[in-house]
Amino acid sequence: MKKYLSILIALIVLGIIAALALAYAPFKPSGANEVLPADWKAEAGRGEYVMRAGDCFACHTAKGGEPFAGGRGIESPMGTIWASNITPDKETGIGNWTLEQFRTAMVDGVGGHGQQLYPAMPYENYRFMKEGDIRALFDYLQTEVAPVKNEVQATSLSFPFNMRFGIRAWNWLALSGQADFKPMAGDDQQIRGQYLVEGAGHCAACHSPRTPLMAQNGTTVSDANFLTGGMVDGWNAPALRGKDARVQTWPASEIAAYLGAGRNAHAVANGEMALVVEHSMQYMSDADLNAMAVFLKSMDGQSVQAVSAQVATPGPHSMPPLPADEAGQATAKLLTSASPDMSLGARLYLDNCAACHFVSGKGAAEIFPELQGNAMVLGKDASPLISVILKGASSPATDRRPMHLVMQGYADRLTDDEVAQLASFLRKGWGNQASQVSARDVAKVRQKVQSLAAH
């Protein structure tokens, strides 16, 4: 017994020593990953373009607040993390930061005052950005953004997540490899798409699963779980890779249209993705949107059809509704019959949904998304689907598609049991195969929706 106690004490002592080493050992920041001339200066507009590609505005701007002045609450499994002020204000922003400090924050997750940043800041992905883009972004924030004095409330998480020195250990496990971009074997377009997806676009932050330590389980194309699906702030981030990736059935031109316009012949962006389109992707060039789409389609060696130079071609064009396919014919026939004997879920669909999404479940291209094979409808967690039924959804207007689309909510119209019946019908109709939804599931989501609306 005394022997085991001695071993336990020794392990505790070793643990304390390791913790102290992590807390006080000198930190060595990553250096620049490319050598630039001493007189290098970013070309006009590059810094703002990098900001859009990195979606900095969305996270660092509070609702109704000044641009980049911080204060937006970002929900995480550990609690609310408050985005910092990144304007050049010298007291509350980054006005006193050096380029080296900014780079260290971007690629190592250590702020200008030496504090460990919470990984709500996607430095796991930004570390793959080239030095030129990081410098261009820094110059933009320092010289083109107005300074705003805004003292953001401190992030206060519960123990042990409030102990920031522990993030050093987390970084040691999560940040694999050097802070540099490793191009795949492909042409210039594929490599450009890879660079944007892995780096500034930080797609893996949402679309890769998480490890038990909440690190991204796949940050580059060489990782098996890269972009195989995740969850963010209560929304399913669907798989973009693998056999369950619905997006892999779309042509590259439709992927590019979805990224740049928030809609295509199959889907309409909602939730967190709608914000990405609104604040980031719609500002990307056609060439970069096509590059991202081609990379996503070809990252595992698939062949890709040529894409048109212009994404989401403007102007009137005919998009007749699609008939039900073989998998969806039985459901379409049931709904067309409008039999009084049909299930409650089917009747609720006819009453509330069929006018837009049609009996075929195919919806209207670029307006009402298809429900057959829809990633949100089929998600393992039905909460996002329930949430949309209760409170509705909104898709932003973009330059490529200026119509603002809104779906009404049904929280005041349908009971918990009725929403459960409707959601279950959607998850089983037209050949869909997903689990049933219970009234208890709906009640939980309704409570959350009401709580968020109250605040």
What does this structure look like?
This protein is mainly alpha-helical and 455 residues long. It folds into 3 domains: 131 residues, no CATH class; 111 residues, Cytochrome Bc1 Complex, Chain D, domain 2 (Orthogonal Bundle), CATH 1.10.760; 128 residues, Cytochrome c-like domain (Cytochrome Bc1 Complex, Chain D, domain 2, Orthogonal Bundle), CATH 1.10.760. 40% of the residues lie in helices and 4% in strands. The chain is built from 18 helices and 6 strands. The strands form 3 sheets. A two-stranded antiparallel sheet has the order 1-2. α16 packs across α18 and α17 crosses α18. The protein is globular.
List keywords for this structure.
single chain, 455 residues, mainly alpha, Cytochrome Bc1 Complex, Chain D, domain 2, 3 domains, two-stranded antiparallel ribbon, 18 helices, 6 strands, 40% helix, globular, disordered N terminus, repeat, heme, cell membrane, Cyt_c-like_dom
